[in-house]
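Anyone? Bumping this.
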Amino acid sequence: MNDKEIENIPRHIAIIMDGNGRWAQAKKRPRIMGHQQGAKVVEKISRECAHLGVEQLTLYTFSEENWQRPVDEVQYLMNLLKRFLRKERKNLVENNIRFCAIGDLERLPKDVQHELQKSIDVSYNNDGMKLCLALSYGSRSEIVDATKKIAAQVAKGEINIEDINHQLFAQNLYQPNMQDPDLLIRTGGDMRVSNFLLWQISYSELWVTHTMWPDFAKEDLLQAIQSYSTRERRFGKISAQVKENHRKIIPG
Ligand code: IPE
Ligand code: IPE
Ligand code: MG
């Protein structure tokens, strides 16, 4: 299968990039080797998605819970992130990618925050794919933060309680105009969402692979998109086929 055979490209793909440690462990290498290889895959898959015409790619890069890992692993990941941001900046420009980041970014080391800002600034006018890294990200915290922002607006009299609806709530999440992911991919085989985009994935299509993130290739991406493109998204309604036959089912 090649990219030309896929008709229905998801507008927004979100990926839980899991399995770096197990990939390294299987090769009897330290976990950080998995992270290093994982960063290369991020570069490759971002470019593929941009070329396929995906509008947004959101990558779960470091969770709020990941701060609890051993200090040396966290330190390595922060340095890797810094190097990745510096190296990838040229590709953002060359591939017309607009960069963004979501999460509790103030918790990140200052030099990482600085590199993030540079990538955001340099790619600000690009109008191709949006690449969003979820960093120090936890969905429950995002939801609590949104609730606090809304409560403050009510307290100041800027809005009424009756004004609070799905749309207003989404406007107060980390990335206000983000459209919900169409497809959520998880590598590494675990069937869980690990505190990722809980509000936004209400109706996303899920695709889990046993492939570890450092081995994730263009073929895996195309396979996920292929699976997505054959699904009927009903959003709670009855399927088009059933609707067609509906009159026959309900007598009278
Ligand atoms: C994902 O790989 C990367 C991060 C969470 C930072 P892991 O490091 O979780 O790898 P496994 O799941 O232990 O194999
Ligand atoms: C999810 O992977 C977070 C990222 C990919 C950044 P984890 O390895 O942290 O998730 P759990 O612990 O398996 O749920
Ligand atoms: Mg993991």
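Late reply, but here is one note on the structure posted above: Residues 16-18, 60-63, 65-66, 190, 192, 194 surround IPE (ligand 2) (CB under 6 Å).
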